[in-house]
Amino acid sequence: MFDPDIAPSGTLLGLLQRGRGDGTLHALAAQRAEALDALESCVLRDPRHDWRVESRSLYYARLYSELEGPLDGIEQHLFCPDGLLPGIAVDDEHRCGLALSVLGHLAGYGRHDALYLLRRYAAVGGCWEWALDELAVHDDDEDLRALGPAVLARFPRTPEGDVQLADAVREAYEPRPWRLWSEHPDPEVAVRVRKAAEQTSFDRWQRQLRPAGPTPGWSVRAVLDWAQQGLDEHPTQLRDAPAARCLAAVAGPEDRPELLAAARSGPAAARAAALRHLADRQDPDILDLIEAAADDPADIVSRAALESFERMRSTAAIARARAWSSREDSLGCAAARVLACRGGTHDSQRVLGALRRLVQQDGADADGLAALVEGAGRLSIDCAAPVLRHIYRETSSSQLRGIAAQALAATDPSFPSGFAVECLWDCEEATRGLAAHHAATADIRVLAQLRRLAADPAEEADVQTAVRGRLRTDI
After folding, report:
1. I need a surface site. Which of 78, 176, 286, 403 has the fewest CB within 10 A?
2. In a 10 Å sphere around its CB, with 0-12 CB exposed, 13-18 middle and 19+ buried, how is residue 386 labelled?
3. Cα–Cα distance, 195 to 184 (Å, whole number)
4. Is the pTM of this model over 0.85?
């Protein structure tokens, strides 16, 4: 029921890896050495499945602050030989990204040792751009200016080095350091940065004048051939979705027979593009074509069929979803997700059955689970509460846990005095905001945590708005 790299949910390490509010509460109640060991393990070995959509850095930084944890482990991790090689750390952001983000939040909390580590790492580390972005938010002008020569020393004074410097300026998430360095007291630093910025503007202008890549011809056949050529190339280029958008511009009523033929038996990429286009146009034959393509051995075809069906909103699509929802294959799961998003209350049992089946078969981190969980809340399926609680406890995705919490708020009468309380310490902003609205203040920890969140400068604005509104009504 859990990923091999994720500890069971009943352990302190498992709670912290998941970013659950109970992780913080258990860590503060545990032996300090044990809590710090588990916390450091999470920060140095990022437990998230996808760092782009799951939050952990503020959650871990707050716990470091609560425990007054030393940063020796993070320092050793960042400054080991692998962490100082450009390219390795950049390509594997799992290795250093979370640690650098935690240091950024700690610097925001006034930890000078965290600020010092970020400056050192920006000067010599492999993933220096990430550290520089953190410093751009938390460091002062004088210290950022002093860092300029060390960063520019990374780029040799050669044509290749100048190109790399221009790329770094163009790709910087936070432009503040580069603006400061363009006015650096050392004229050599200032001139190099200004030239790199000018080259960046020129490159952007050139890219606007040049076509971005190969484009299809102005006919249905040319578009379908273009989609298939991308699949046949090495490396493969999946063009079925953009090809479907092109078909919207070039296809007319007279092209329907050709598109139907492509969707039934054309080459894989052309078939996928035709399926997407016909689904967008609500073609009367598309549902039969989707059913035939849903279990196609070519992944590009089956994926296009299922994704196209899940986008459909017609009455016919909803009716077909009801007929397919009892199936135990990928099309049945897609049908259940359609009903979860757009069905009515009389579809509750279909959605609940699919939710239970998917959790039993693939666990609390199954693909496609989020739509079913959200649907259980949207349809207010009260008897879904037990499986929703299971997903909340066991999933390693903090994003899915937040969706489960939202569904529990709509289905579980015990939510305000139960999970809503721990959600005030959750790693996800949306989950903390939900808890601020629902957590029962009879628990003495709730008001104290609400006040803490209201006063925390690192807390997100939406959460603080919810917290302050709740404090006004409960005090």
Report:
1. 176
2. exposed
3. 13
4. yes
